[in-house]
Write a structure and sequence with these properties.
It contains two helices and 27 strands. It is mainly beta and 337 residues long.
């Protein structure tokens, strides 16, 4: 091959590489990212600083299961004792409510895996107006309370029909008061109106999109009004709009997690996504992805493993529930911030 031919060949290869890069950029710009997000083994900064720690014992919590931050800044925590505990940002217990049972204001939190009976499914969310929503897994319903624990109403019951649950799990509330609930057995996600009527349902074994077949887990709505969802069956993070459409997705994994799966994701006001692993202690790191789904930081889980991804309050508060039952108050400074 002569020099001119060689130079032309090299130029063609370079042009093809540039074209391919451009196409990849266009795919990412459309929102659906079919390729894994960056999981480079490069050293990642740890932007998390623990500014306060409240132990489960000091708060009187019995194997805490879920944490939510109310619009006023107080924390709402469920635990194995079939209760809700309200805690100030300074770590003071303000009130408790709930007891075992099936009546209004009573709970039957059950484990998803009988081999870990202390790890009950008892998800909680706080919405606008101070309302508190609790997924009562064993009673197959969602209960709604005032901020001080007064029972307002409930919706859902055992079954496989419209508006029914086999085992309600994660839930989130948007700015309109609509409630999103996942069913840990059916693998579905249902949106309910503020009054408790079914608006739509996605997922389940018959879903045509493989990203929606599996266990759909969530607790946060991002600044664009999208639900941030993890499907741990395929290790994907999905963004679902208010109409039930998948508008973005990327692959993620916590390689250091004992299960190798991701089970929880939240988002901060800037659009960064925080993805955590599954299980009890240790759960592996929490990974931080920017809006372009690039891996930019990592909570290494050297001291405390996070049971779920951090919760973000309305005034920049950040709290997380650790696998040992502690509640951690965090300060986060991301690269370039």
């Amino acid at each position: 091959m002569d020099r001119i031919t060689t130079r032309l060949s090299i130029a063609a290869v370079a042009a093809a590489a540039i074209l391919a890069a451009g196409c990849a950029g266009n795919v990412a710009a459309t929102g659906i990212n079919p390729s894994p997000a960056s999981t480079s083994p490069r050293a990642l900064p740890n932007p998390f600083t623990i500014t306060a720690r409240y132990s489960a014992k000091s708060l009187g919590l019995n194997h805490p299961a879920s944490l939510a931050i109310a619009p006023g800044g107080n924390l709402y925590v469920t635990d194995l004792g079939q209760r809700v505990t309200v805690i100030s940002p300074a770590g003071k217990v303000l009130r408790r409510w709930g007891r075992p049972g099936s009546g209004p204001g009573e709970f039957k939190f059950i484990p998803g895996d009988p081999s870990t009976p202390d790890d009950v499914q008892a998800m909680i969310a706080a919405g606008a107006g101070g309302k508190v929503y609790v997924a009562d897994s064993g009673n197959a319903r969602v209960q709604v309370f005032t901020a001080d624990g007064r029972f307002i109403r409930q919706f859902g019951r055992f079954g496989q029909g419209k508006g029914q649950f086999q085992r309600p799990y994660d839930l989130a509330v948007d700015a309109t008061g609509a409630v999103y609930v996942s069913d840990d057995v059916a693998g579905t996600m249902t949106k309910f109106s503020p009054a408790g009527s079914v608006l739509w349902q996605i997922g389940g074994a018959s879903a045509s999109d493989p990203d929606l077949v599996g266990e759909l887990k969530f607790s946060a709505i991002d600044s664009h009004g999208r639900l941030v969802v993890v499907n741990d069956a395929v290790n994907r993070v999905l963004y679902i709009d208010s109409g039930g459409h998948k508008v973005d997705a990327f692959a993620a994994h916590t390689a250091e997690s004992p299960t190798g799966h991701v089970c929880s994701a939240t988002a901060d006001a800037a659009g960064n996504t925080y993805v955590s692993g599954c299980g009890l202690q240790p759960t592996g790191p929490t990974l931080v992805y920017d809006q372009a789904h690039r891996l930019i930081a990592k909570w290494p889980a050297a001291t405390y493993s996070l049971l779920r991804s951090p919760a973000f309050g309305p005034r920049g508060e950040v709290f997380a529930l650790a696998a040992d039952g502690s509640i951690l108050r965090l300060h986060i400074t991301l690269p370039g911030a």
